[in-house]
UniProtKB/TrEMBL annotation, chain A:
<dbReference type="GO" id="GO:0032153">
    <property type="term" value="C:cell division site"/>
</dbReference>
<feature type="transmembrane region" description="Helical">
    <location>
        <begin position="29"/>
        <end position="52"/>
    </location>
</feature>
<keyword id="KW-0472">Membrane</keyword>
<feature type="transmembrane region" description="Helical">
    <location>
        <begin position="174"/>
        <end position="201"/>
    </location>
</feature>
<keyword id="KW-0132">Cell division</keyword>
<dbReference type="Pfam" id="PF02687">
    <property type="entry name" value="FtsX"/>
</dbReference>
<keyword id="KW-0131">Cell cycle</keyword>
<keyword id="KW-1003">Cell membrane</keyword>
<dbReference type="InterPro" id="IPR003838">
    <property type="entry name" value="ABC3_permease_C"/>
</dbReference>
From TrEMBL, chain B:
<dbReference type="InterPro" id="IPR003439">
    <property type="entry name" value="ABC_transporter-like_ATP-bd"/>
</dbReference>
<keyword id="KW-0067">ATP-binding</keyword>
<dbReference type="Pfam" id="PF00005">
    <property type="entry name" value="ABC_tran"/>
</dbReference>
<dbReference type="InterPro" id="IPR003593">
    <property type="entry name" value="AAA+_ATPase"/>
</dbReference>
<keyword id="KW-0547">Nucleotide-binding</keyword>
<keyword id="KW-0131">Cell cycle</keyword>
<feature type="domain" description="ABC transporter">
    <location>
        <begin position="14"/>
        <end position="235"/>
    </location>
</feature>
<dbReference type="GO" id="GO:0005886">
    <property type="term" value="C:plasma membrane"/>
</dbReference>
<dbReference type="GO" id="GO:0051301">
    <property type="term" value="P:cell division"/>
</dbReference>
Length: 302, 235
């Protein structure tokens, strides 16, 4: 493990003796750098989409948590009975996790910002409120509304927040897609580096043979290639990441009203540090891919 | 002595034991047993295609024998892992028949290569001395492609000895040289032998062997009928 660590340090610091030992393999430089840069650019967007949908889903899910209320507006002496009927109906309705009547004090607290705390609410004919928390599957709002109007006149279902339910599901899927995209980008980068490294190793077969003949260990020869491709992929990915971050920074900010989801597509605060992980991941992927390719190629030389 | 893995070959740096090797078809070498004592000077002769290069390759583990065993420094080559092979090649200097340089490196870089790949730094003064010893001081910055055949072979010799190996193997080292240059190279090899190195040289050149015998007690191995025999003094 410490050998691998030394290896990584040597690569990052640009140290290591094998620099000139392997001839510069010009043909593989630009494809590698360009592909790493493009992948990193895409990764920045995939990351920002994943983060933005994450935030959005959180916000929407919050408002969904108390997604519906039933308002019972009847004469005060019939109120308790009506609330009981509603609760009974709700208990029978599939898709409702919990239904709870708010007590007088909670209703007062809800109204206080509008009416002032000192108002003697007990004297006012306030509607009674029943809060509904639904299950993940949700309930059928239409049939509940019909049943309430038939059985408890004065009970009214308010499900204004429920329209967001499909959006929350969609947001979760988009976030998952973002994650899958990131995974695919990493896999594509690994495949691309493997191909480029294999091409370089095959082109330098004679060099590798001579190096083995004069007593080079496999690790030494592998290092020459690993350094090269780690450096290229890391550099390309760094440039791609910075360009991607700049593009995101130039998007219209959340100040613009009505931009909705699109305005949420940036990074917020410390999130700006997250894309900087991309070049590091690219370098690690290139390191591992080249090492594996070099091990394979070296096995064919005595 | 009982459990010592080196017991049969204690006094030899290279030991072939009943080695059979070939490349498909009938083997080139059959049931060959040879011992090379430390500090000895051997020539290896035989007609072209007899298997001289093959036998040398078995010594530095470029090849593993199909049957029998080859031990170098008491270690059986077939048992070595890849790092052990690398270390073996630092103790056995080889002048290859086709030299085998890295074409993109200059001559001094090529000569220093065995030291470079072992992770050490080469002392420039030492490298300069070595290049002077083979008469290549003025060609140090040239690329291999710019050298004559003889210059390449001297550069290959310099590269073979730069790690101060205990064994020096040379495959037709005078193949491209005129007689004067051949004698100069022979002198270098004899010098190395006097320093205690074990020398093994494949050559066709009987004149070279005769010249060597006036300077050191060289023995001649000959490949004939798929076997290796010690040639008499009647060359
Ligand atoms: N890698 C190989 N694959 C197949 N045949 C080979 C291989 N290497 C050598 N041979 C054959 O084995 C035979 C012996 O080759 P080798 O190079 O050992 O001969 P040599 O005695 O060194 O010849 P020369 O004096 O011409 O250098 C030759 O017929 C050669 O064609
Ligand atoms: Mg030969």
């Amino acid at each position: 493990m410490t050998r691998v660590f030394d290896h990584v340090i040597a690569v990052i610091a640009g140290r290591g003796p094998a620099n000139r030992i392997v001839p510069p393999s010009g043909a593989t430089v630009w494809p590698t750098v360009l592909a790493a840069g493009a992948m990193a650019f895409l990764a920045v967007f995939a990351l920002s989409v994943a983060l933005a949908t994450d935030r959005l889903a959180d916000r929407w899910a919050d408002s969904l948590a108390h997604s519906a209320t039933v308002r019972v507006t009847v004469a005060p002496d019939q109120a308790d009975q009506a609330v009981d009927s509603v609760l009974r109906i709700l208990a029978q309705t599939p898709g409702i996790a919990e239904a709870r009547a708010l007590d007088q004090q909670e209703i007062s607290q809800l109204l206080a910002p509008w009416l002032g705390a000192e108002l003697p609410l007990e004297d006012l004919p306030l509607p009674r409120l029943i809060e509904i928390r639904e299950t993940d599957a949700g309930f059928d709002a239409e049939s509940l509304r019909l049943r309430l109007s038939a059985e408890v006149p004065g009970a009214e279902l308010d499900d204004h927040a429920r329209w967001r339910r499909p959006l929350v599901l969609a947001a979760g899927r988009i976030r998952a897609l973002g994650m899958v995209s990131l995974g695919l980008i990493v896999a594509a980068m690994a495949a691309m580096v493997t191909l480029a490294a294999r091409a370089a190793l095959a082109a330098n077969r004679q060099v590798i043979e001579v190096l083995r003949l004069v007593g080079a260990r496999d690790a030494y020869i592998a290092r020459a290639f690993v350094r090269r491709f780690t450096h290229r992929a890391g550099t390309g990915a760094l440039v791609g990441t910075l360009v991607g971050m700049s593009a995101i920074a130039l998007l219209p900010g959340p100040a613009q009203e009505g931009a909705g989801f699109l305005s949420g597509l940036g990074f917020r605060g410390a999130e700006w540090l997250l894309p900087l992980v991309i070049p590091v991941v690219a370098a690690i992927v290139a390191f591992a891919a080249t090492r594996a390719a070099a091990r394979g190629a070296l096995r064919e030389v005595q | 002595m009982m459990n010592s893995p080196r017991s049969p070959d204690d006094r030899s740096v290279i030991a072939f034991s009943d080695v059979t090797h070939g490349y498909g078809g009938s083997p080139l070498l059959h049931g060959v047993s040879v011992r090379i004592a430390p500090g000895s000077f051997h020539f290896l002769t035989g007609p072209s295609g007899a298997g001289k290069t093959t036998l040398l390759k078995l010594c530095y583990r470029d090849l593993v024998p199909q049957q029998g065993s080859v031990s170098v420094f008491g270690q059986e080559t077939a048992q070595m892992d890849r790092d052990a092979v690398a270390l073996l090649r630092r103790r056995v200097g080889v002048v290859h028949q086709d030299c085998r340089f890295l074409d993109h490196l200059t001559i001094d870089e090529n000569v220093a290569l065995p030291v470079t790949v072992s992770g050490r730094h080469i002392d420039p003064a030492e490298l300069g001395e070595l290049l002077a010893w083979v008469g290549l001081s003025r060609r140090a910055g040239a690329l291999p492609a710019e050298l004559s055949g003889g210059e390449r072979q001297r550069a290959a010799l310099a590269r073979a000895v730069i790690t101060a190996p205990e064994i020096l193997i040379a495959d037709e080292p005078t193949g491209n040289l005129d007689w004067d240059m051949s004698l100069r190279l022979l002198t270098l090899l004899v010098e190395l032998n006097r320093m205690g190195k074990t020398i093994l040289i494949a050559t066709h050149d009987l004149n070279l062997i005769r010249a060597a015998k006036t300077q050191v007690s060289a023995r001649v191995l000959r490949i004939a009928n798929r076997r290796v025999e010690l040639a008499g003094a009647d060359l």
